[in-house]
Design goal:
CATH architecture of chain B: 2-Layer Sandwich
CATH topology of chain B: BirA Bifunctional Protein, domain 2
Number of strands of chain A: 27
Helix content of chain A: 25-40%
Number of domains of chain B: 1
Distance between the termini of chain B: 55 Å
Largest interface: A-B, 90 and 100 residues
Number of helices of chain A: 15
Strand content of chain B: 15-25%
Distance between the termini of chain A: 30 Å
Strand content of chain A: 25-35%
Radius of gyration of chain A: 33 Å
Helix content of chain B: 25-40%
Oligomer: heterodimer
Largest sheet of chain B: 8 strands, mixed
Structural class of chain B: alpha+beta
CATH superfamily of chain B: Bira Bifunctional Protein, Domain 2
Number of strands of chain B: 11
Shape of chain B: elongated
Structural class of chain A: alpha+beta
Radius of gyration of chain B: 26 Å
């Protein structure tokens, strides 16, 4: 999530309202206030609204939302006369270039911080960690147009930001902190992207690092923006968001000639939406005129076009308007979520519990009736707990996660019994007897199904207790069964049984092997039962596979 | 004498016996009844509420294809949640269902709707890779695909997974409660009405709604409930399925969808400070948490 720092002084100046009013209404436009501080507030905005990742963008939206200035913000773009070429060799590396010239800007400390924050947040939300879009902002007066975006040899050297000596691009990837952080994006390419000026001076090695030469300071008055990436729409949206923010900060936006196209245009796009469709979605009675008014507060310009349609001009910085309903959501926000009259859905249906859950409930009633306490273990566990400590071989259909977070969470459980015994271990200082049960999901390969297990730990726990519980379970769950000698190494030989129903082994019971007790640091005998609940008559077939 | 014998009771000999008096000063031995886990009792209470409201329960696998977990819910293939830092991926793959092309087209250009889609690329192999489900919405969408005609009212309580380091407030797995209502003429107001009713029945009287964001709903809403001592607490997310989600499957009526992190309710109810306590059970916690919980009471507290 993008957390944006808003300094009150700058925010109040841009919005034209006081901080109390702004903070009171800010959450209702779609944000979470994280921290309120003396001179600033940290606010989290949704990834769908990268245009709100700057003080300027927030101020623009709040002016509309508070009714101080509604409708489409106007942005004028004049040609800069500067051109920027794109090397065809970049087609398979990082093909798209967006750019703009910003003149007459005067950035104080808070505006520079806002701009840097915006850049970082855009790298995250739009840029997917710079792989999809990367942004560079330069002091235009330090370099000479026209500019060229080229595919360059990896041995080309320049002075990267925050360094004093020249480094080759390869060295930057190995040594510069930004190089190491983003090396994976370019490492595989034979040549690297580079932006140079007419005198072959380096502005930037996108998406890694700018050159020191064009560093932006409080003294910078004229800026050059570059956005490069692999997705044209995202590259252009980034240009629009930065240019509109800098225009709001007092800059004049000029376009750059890229292969005959003047970038940016900052022109709105148009959508023709239906007031009836919007009303039906929201449950509100909106006329085209009423809908237009609401959208004006969200900085669209909207006007009725006939008795149902509304022509909506969508500002160029809105990355999230993909569908008419995205506009309707803005209408709902302008209407105010607190103003909707909540009403129960009229839908009449008869509820039904799922058969698998009904079986689980029966197991719970049986378990508590037998005097057992239910526990709810994690489903992620390790081969060590599931098999190693149980003296059991690893089941061939064990489901492993590819990038586990720790050694304790490498596989999904295939049974509940080891986890119940582990729970006994957590509780070894608690009063005896301890009788625990669990019912829940286990997997075999990609199949999910339910098992139930019971353990009883006390000085007199033995085979006959386990046998009695296994028998009670099968009787109460209407599973006709026979028992056979089991070979399960988790149990003591001669004190273990396999539960067989309809010719298939569906469970095991007996007295846990002392070596297993040792592995789990237990000091008393444990009687245990585990059963596969798919053996319960009526357990639905064909469930639980992706 | 102490305990009466069967013979003494049958023969009437008890009439002549001096029966020893026992003292109430001797406190009773503490017996612990077998019990359903306190957390499960809260889950059952929620199930009960939803069943009473006419919802049917659905159930499904922990492992899901990326297709049902993400693509069918219009999560773009380059969405951060789909990176290996956030989601437990599995090496297993499954083949895509019939009609997957319509979902692909939705991502690429919005199919036959007013949507622009996400643009860019859509990779079939990426959709085939399995994950541990990150939400049970993967089950709701599959239910909807199998039942495209109204009305549909279903819910699910199940384990979901996030690739998070485990601490007092974060777990790699936890329960999610979620459900959908699909019907003719249901609206955003009905969604808010359902949420208010459900939270009210769970004992949260004050509910408010703020705009939210989820890739598969539009509009989206974040419900908050007021808890004494804590203030407004976020209680999950809800919204109306985007047309991009339902259109590929011929679902033509609105789908109200909501999800709730139930562990948060459980923490408030049980007065726990550490989420791990729900799953790494201390037997004394189960023994000492009373079975009966006065309805409409949450413990709150800092």
């Amino acid at each position: 999530m993008a957390v944006i720092t808003l300094y009150y002084r700058y925010l109040e100046r841009l919005v034209g309202s006081d901080r109390e009013t702004i903070l009171a209404r800010l959450p209702m436009i779609g944000s979470d206030i994280e921290r309120v501080e003396e001179d600033h507030v940290d606010v989290e905005f949704f990834p769908s609204r990268p245009d709100l990742f700057s003080v300027e963008g927030v101020a623009r939206a709040m002016r509309g939302f508070l009714g101080l200035e509604t409708g489409l913000p106007q942005y004028h773009v004049t040609p800069s006369g500067i051109s920027f070429s794109v090397d065809p060799g970049l087609a398979s590396i990082r093909p798209y270039l967006g750019t703009a010239v910003i003149r007459g800007i005067q950035l104080d400390e808070e505006a520079i911080l806002s701009l840097m924050g915006l850049q970082e947040a855009l790298h995250w939300a739009l840029g997917r960690g710079r792989s999809k879009v990367a942004i560079g902002i330069h002091d235009l007066d330090r370099v000479t147009p026209p500019f060229r975006y080229i595919a360059e040899e990896r041995t080309r050297a320049f002075v990267p930001l925050d360094y004093e000596r020249e480094m080759t691009m390869e060295e930057i990837l190995d040594e510069h902190p930004k190089g190491r952080a983003y090396a994976d994006i370019v490492r595989g390419f034979p040549k690297f992207p580079l932006i140079v000026d007419a005198c072959n001076q380096v502005l930037s090695f996108p998406p890694i690092i700018n050159g020191e030469l064009t560093r932006v300071t409080g003294e910078s008055r004229n800026l050059l923006l570059d956005t490069t990436g692999t997705d044209e729409r995202a590259v252009m949206t980034a240009v629009n968001i930065i240019c509109t923010a800098l225009a709001d900060a007092g800059g004049r936006i000029e376009s750059v000639d890229v292969a005959g196209n003047h970038i940016p245009t900052l022109a709105p796009s148009t959508r023709l939406v239906s007031a009836r469709e919007c009303s039906a979605l929201l449950g509100a009675d909106l006329t085209p005129a009423g809908l237009s008014l609401l959208l004006g507060k969200m900085r669209f310009s909207a006007e009725p076009a006939g008795d149902d349609k509304v022509r909506v001009m969508v500002p160029c910085y809105r990355a999230d308007i993909m569908h008419d309903w995205d506009i309707f959501e803005d209408a709902a926000i302008a209407y105010g979520y607190e103003n909707f009259r909540a009403e129960l859905p009229p839908t009449f249906t008869i509820g039904r519990a799922h058969p698998v859950m009904i079986v689980a409930s029966a197991v719970r009633s049986l378990g508590s009736g037998l005097g057992y306490q239910e526990v709810i273990p994690f489903t992620l566990t390790s081969e060590k707990v599931m098999y190693g400590k149980m003296q059991r071989p690893v089941a061939p259909e064990t489901l492993s996660v590819l990038h586990p977070i720790s050694e304790e969470n490498t596989i999904v459980r295939t049974g509940l019994l080891p986890l119940l015994i582990e729970t006994l271990q957590f509780n070894r200082h608690r009063e005896l007897p301890q009788r625990l049960f669990a019912v829940g999901d286990v997997v075999r390969g990609l199949l999910t199904f339910q098992k139930a297990a019971f353990v009883s730990l006390h000085p007199a726990a033995d085979f006959s207790e386990a046998y009695a519980v296994a028998d009670a379970m099968c009787r109460e769950l209407s599973i006709p069964y026979t028992s056979e000698e089991s070979e399960d190494p988790a149990f003591i030989g001669g004190r273990r049984g396999s539960i067989v129903a309809a010719g298939r082994p569906i469970g095991v019971f007996g007295e846990i092997h002392p070596a297993v007790l040792n592995a789990f640091e237990l000091e008393h005998p444990v009687a245990a039962v585990e059963i596969d609940l798919t053996a319960v008559p009526g357990y639905p077939a064909g469930l639980g596979t992706p | 004498m102490g305990t009466l014998s069967r013979e003494q009771i049958k023969s009437g000999a008890w009439k002549d016996l001096r029966i020893r008096r026992y003292s109430l000063e001797t406190l009773p031995r503490k017996v612990f009844p077998g019990k359903v886990h306190p957390y499960q009792r809260i889950l059952d209470e929620m199930r009960q509420i939803l069943l009473e409201m006419g919802f049917s329960e659905i159930y499904g696998g922990l492992a899901q294809s990326s297709f049902w977990n993400f693509d069918a819910l219009f999560q773009p293939q380059d969405h951060p949640a789909r990176e290996m830092q956030d989601t437990f991926f599995l090496k297993e793959t499954v083949s895509l269902p019939a009609g997957f092309e319509r979902v692909r087209d939705m991502h690429l250009h919005g199919g036959t709707t007013s949507s622009t889609g996400w643009g860019g690329q859509w990779n079939r192999e990426k959709a085939e890779q399995c994950v541990l489900r990150t939400h049970t919405t993967s089950l709701s969408i599959q239910h909807l695909v199998a039942h495209p005609e109204p009305p549909v009212k279903v819910f699910c309580i199940g384990r979901v997974y996030r690739r998070e380091s485990i601490d007092a407030t974060h777990l790699a797995e936890f329960e999610q409660l979620e459900g959908i209502v699909m019907d003719r003429d249901v609206t955003f107001r009905h969604l808010l009405g359902f949420l208010k009713e459900f939270y009210g029945r769970m004992g949260f009287e004050d509910v408010r709604f703020r705009p939210g964001y989820f890739p598969y709903t539009e509009p989206s809403v974040e419900p908050e409930v007021y808890v004494d001592g804590l203030g407004w607490v976020e209680m999950g997310g809800a919204g109306i399925f985007r047309e991009e989600v339902r259109a590929p499957w011929g679902v033509t009526h609105p789908v109200l969808a909501w999800g709730l992190g139930v562990s948060r309710v459980a923490m408030l109810r049980l007065g726990l400070k550490d989420l791990r306590q729900l799953y790494r059970t201390d037997i004394d916690f189960v023994r000492e948490t009373p079975l009966w919980h006065q309805p409409g009471k949450t413990r709150g507290g800092a």
